[in-house]
Structure formats: structure tokens, C-alpha cells
Amino acid sequence: MYQIDTLTKTYQQGKRVVHALQDVSLRIDDGELVSIQGPTGGGKSTLLQMLGGLDRPTSGSISLDGTDLAGMNDTDLTRVRAETIGFVFQNFNLIPTLTAQENVETALVPSGVSKEERAARAVAALESVSLGDRADHLPGELSGGQQQRVAIARALVKNPKVLLADEPTGNLDEETRDEIVDLLEGLWKEQGLTLILVTHDSVVARRTPRRLRIAKGQVKDLTA
Ligand SMILES: Nc1ncnc2c1ncn2[C@@H]1O[C@H](COP(=O)(O)OP(=O)(O)OP(=O)(O)O)[C@@H](O)[C@H]1O
What we know:
InterPro entries: AAA+_ATPase (IPR003593), ABC_transporter-like_ATP-bd (IPR003439), ABC_transporter-like_CS (IPR017871), ABC_transpr_LolD-like (IPR015854), MacB-like_ATP-bd (IPR017911), P-loop_NTPase (IPR027417)
Strand content: 25-35%
Protein name: ABC transporter ATP-binding protein
Bound molecules: adenosine-5'-triphosphate
Largest sheet: 6 strands, mixed
Shape: globular
CATH topology: Rossmann fold
Number of domains: 1
GO molecular function, one term: ATP binding
Radius of gyration: 17 Å
Keywords: ATP-binding, Nucleotide-binding, Transport
Number of helices: 7
Organism: Antribacter soli
């Protein structure tokens, strides 16, 4: 469970101070599927970065299962990210010179999993996104939707508790978008994940049980 209390994140832009997040308080329970919408510059990516322990708040707290991410040292935070949180991005962020199989295996390197186990788990993860027959392909040989499936397999191969997705369908046509949302929704149900996704797309947001809107650094729960 995430518990966020009076979280503020400011950035200095020249002489100007930008409040990317302002006094945000929020709770996200285990197993929720939540979308985050809002205008450009509203603070969506900043919030996702905080949830992923990729950046630290200026003030306030953000805890995951009772541990304050803001107060953790870098080593512990890296471990939490490696073991507990999966990330999916708009641009897939696959390594172009590695095959689908190798891309997925990379996610297990920081956790110290043996080579044999990495290979077996990557095969299973690719099968879970219906890409078992494309394991030897390079990203450039795959469609956008297939690349996103590889990225989802890479995020889930470590069995994370939380999956954070930043515009996961932003680069896909409508049909592929629907396939990817179907896939994410299926994995969410099957694996009991907490799935939090940032999206500009109201069609995607309408499919999530809980919808948050963030504008000018402030969060509103549209389903409360
Ligand atoms: N590293 C940074 N340095 C300075 N300002 C930043 C930085 N990151 C974000 N900001 C500012 O914080 C505010 C919130 O940005 P954020 O990227 O979270 O918005 P967003 O809702 O994700 O926008 P978009 O939909 O365009 O991705 C913006 O005013 C942005 O300019």
C-alpha cells in the first residue's frame, strides 16, 4: 500500500520555483488499478517518479508498505526498485542491440538471479505476453505493440508488487492500444498487481476502477 502525506516537489527553473506537486495526500491500496490523467505540466510524471522511488520529494512523505521511500538511502531504494516495482514507458525503452529474451533477462541481473533461472523466467514472461515465438527477435524487428509487450514482460519478470506505466499506449494506434490495455488488465487481475498508469487517453482511463486527475500539482480523485 502507498501512503502519501502532504507531498510537495518543487523544481527551480532559473529564478522561478515550480510546484510540480503541492501538498498531495493520497492512499493507494494493494491490488488497485488506478489511472492518472491531467493537463501537460500538471505533475503526472513527477508523481509517478515519486511512486517509483526515482526521485525524492522536497517535503512530505511517501511510504510503500510502511517504509518511507524519501528516507531510504540510495542502496536500499535501488533494491526496492529492482525487486518491488516494474516500470513501463511510452517509448518502450528496450535495448536495441539485445533480443527480446535478453532485454527481459536484464531485469533480473540486479536481483542476483542465476543465468539459468534468468533464462527460464524470461521465457515464461514472454509467453505470458504471447511473444514466446519472438524471443530471438531484436526490438527493431518487432511492431510497436510487440515491443511494448516485451517491455511489459521485462517489467513483470521480477514479479513486482507494483507496476507503474507512463503513457504505455501513447505511441500505439487504437487497435494496438486496446490490445495492450487488455493485456495489462489481464495481468493485473491474474497477478494481483497494483497497477498505476498515466494516460492522456480518456478511453484508457475510463477502463480503470479508480481515476485520479492531477493539475497544477494537485490531485483530485474523480471516483471518490
Ligand atoms: N527536472 C525538472 N526540472 C525543472 N522543472 C521540472 C522538472 N521536471 C518537471 N518539471 C516541471 O514540473 C511541472 C510538472 O511536470 P511533469 O512532467 O510532472 O508534468 P506532466 O503532467 O507529466 O506533463 P506531460 O503530460 O507534459 O508529461 C512542470 O511545470 C515541469 O516543467
